[in-house]
Structure of MbtH family NRPS accessory protein:
Amino acid sequence: MAADADLYDVVLNDEEQYSVWWADREPPSGWRREGTRGTREECLAHIAEVWTDMRPLSLRRRMEMDSEV
């Protein structure tokens, strides 16, 4: 495993958009840790696996509501 300085966390915002952030720093305002930690490459691979719909959550909800009408 990499040194602590080389560890990243996968972070997520309220719109369910993903990013990576240094594990030894608090995420920026509006972002929270998703639970995955590893090298940058490991975190990016995890994001590629789980973030299959790039649309923000608010847009997905609006589109679902529009399709129900």
Notes: The mean pLDDT is 90.
